[in-house]
Amino acid sequence: MTHWLIAEPAGCSNEPVWKIYSEQAILDEYWTYWERQGKAYNKAHNLDPNEGITTARCIDDWTVIHWAVRATPEHLIKIISAPYR
């Protein structure tokens, strides 16, 4: 299973909070909303309601919205070794 790494702001601080999500966690959090929006779009454009509604596309959209990168050892090492400001 692929895991995804995102950064979010930490309140009033300039330091990011790093989070790692599994694909299942993304679907658990985002699927219902994403599926509902996709079906509404399809209906508005006279398309089959289920056209393009797949878990893979849901995860793709989530990664774009959150600027996510794969949580590979290389990405994690860059974060850990980054200088503290």
| Count of distinct strands | 3
The biggest beta sheet, please? 3 strands, antiparallel
Secondary structure category:
alpha+beta
| Structural shape | elongated
Helix content range:
40-55%
Low-confidence stretches: none
Rg for CA atoms: 16 Å
How many independent structural domains?
1
What percentage of the residues does DSSP assign to strands (E)?
Answer: 15-25%
The chain-level mean pLDDT equals 90
What's the helix-strand series? EEHHEH
Calculate the terminal CA-CA distance, rounded to whole Å: 34 Å
Describe the model.
The structure is a single chain. By secondary structure, the chain is α+β, with helices and mostly antiparallel strands. The protein has one domain (3-81). The chain is 49% helix and 24% strand. It has three helices and three strands; from the N terminus they run E-E-H-H-E-H. It has helices at residues 23-44, 55-65, 73-81; strands at 3-10, 13-22, 69-70. Strands 2-1-3 form a three-stranded antiparallel β-sheet. Strand 1 and strand 2 (13-22) form a beta hairpin. The longest helix is centred in the middle third of the chain and has 22 residues, at 23-44. The mean pLDDT is 90.
